[in-house]
Write a structure and sequence with these properties.
The complex is a heterodimer of chains A (205) and B (340). Chain A has helices spanning 11-74, 76-83, 121-204, and strands at residues 91-99, 102-111. With 205 residues, chain A is mainly alpha-helical. In chain A, strands 1-2 form a two-stranded antiparallel ribbon. Classes of the chains: A mainly alpha (205), B mainly alpha (340). Chain A binds chain B through residues 66, 68-78, 80-82, 84-87, 116-122, 124-125, and chain B through 58-59, 62-63, 99, 102-103, 106-107, 109-110, 112, 120, 165-169, 172-173, 212-213, 215-216, 271-277, 313, 316-317, 320-321, 324, 326, 330-331, 333-335.
Chain lengths: 205, 340
Amino acid sequence: MSATSGVRPTKGYLMETKRRIQTVERGTEFLKLKRDQLAKDLTESLDVLKGRRGLLLNNLQEAYGALTAAYLSLGPMEVQSQTKSIKNTLDLDVLPRSVMGVVYPSIRIKERPEIAAELDITLAHAAEKVYEIIEELIRLAEFEERVSRIAEELGSTSRKVNALENMVIPDMRYIIKFIEDKLDEESMEELVRMKLIGGAKSSQK
Amino acid sequence: MNLGTDYVVLRTHARIADLLNKEQMQRLADASDINEFIQRLKDTPYGEIEVERDDKIAINLEKIFTKKFTERIEEIVKITPAKMGEFLHAYFDFRFEVLNLKRILRGKFTESSIEEIADSLIPISYIIRDYGALIGSGNLEDVVKQLGNTAYRSLIDKLELYKEYDALWPLELELNYIYARNILRLTESLPAKDRHIVNSLVKYETDVENVLIAIKRRGKSEVDLDEIFPVTYGIDKDDLKQIIEAESLAKAIDGLDEPYKSVLEPIKTGDIALVRAMLRKGKYDAATKARAGNQFGFNVILAFLVYSEIEKDNLVGLAWGEVQGLSAEHLLKYIVIPWD
């Protein structure tokens, strides 16, 4: 379907289209700013994410090592029995948060596990290590989701900017030109007609 | 020395030869997986063992190794002269009973099922004739109240603290104290020459456990030393206070005497679990030294049982590690293998 199908070549429509193209162009500029900001944010976040993942991996390895050592020292039955003394389970609240129109989950820790027994030192050490990384793990999951949503939003914003720059705005410009041409044509016709009418009247006199 | 003791000592010497040596332990640790581990176990005095190879294989093997260990205790206790036998029965069975009581209390605390609690118990008892009644109790307080007519009656006094903190540690620490107090009382029934090794083992263990408890209390304000450390021996409450409050734990450990300093050395490098291995090694060394001092007395019997317990702990750790696919190097780090 042509861009001009359904277009009414009137002055009113031309004014309306010109007003719309101004809005669209301003919107495109905003979207470009958002795209650039998202791209910058994504690049920075990916660097941070890489660092945080590396750090967490190290801490996870340490926690796993401590837990393995506790199992080797105490045996699985005693470890299982001692871990029963953990009073509360981890309770989380997941709330939506929005930055630059990007909605991502924000996690709030409502309740943390609490050790009620006199754990063996090997297990207490392992628990401490695991406890330390719980928040880190949650924050990383939150951050990863945020980065993933930013990437999605960046893709969608880029597609919108491309569509506006390459399709919508050129089409609107074409419509404006089409209407202007039509209107010019019409006014020329009108002028010729007026001149013809004027000529006919003066010859009658 | 009476004839009875001679007989037991001779039998025990023969039994010591049945314990796994360094090469056998190394061979087990080198097994590529748990199936090969079980296969290699066939070539040891443990022989062929029947175990359900499901996802709980490590726990199933732990039960088998524990059973073997309890059988060894029973066999020795049965033939040991009365007072000595009574003491050995108390030294080992009382400890496992305390462990079982802790497991019952933890199970009740988290409202585990009766089956689950029963399954976690070691089939050993000392004072408690039947764990069924305790496990079947409605709640933790009922369990403690049922123990009111036994040597565990002081647990009732700790119920207030348990409620105040909503935590099990006051009861668990009291159980440790009950065990240490009773064992030391029972040593009085032993001949003076045999008392030394037991006293040193019990006191050494209690002291190290106290230090470990103190380390766990670091950074906490208002620690009631009398409540946390009802008994102390070689490391007194001032030393323990120092460990809790010292800015540098390494310096506080350096300030302790031997053998505690060496046992606690791994803490400085952050390898906390190695302390357990060092503690076992300390017990092994103490038992070996005592045995070397008198090859024909009670020391030999006690040493055998100490070695047997270490062997049981080693095999439990190895089996779990094999299931997890850990390397031999990793496995042997935390396991005390006879050095000679």
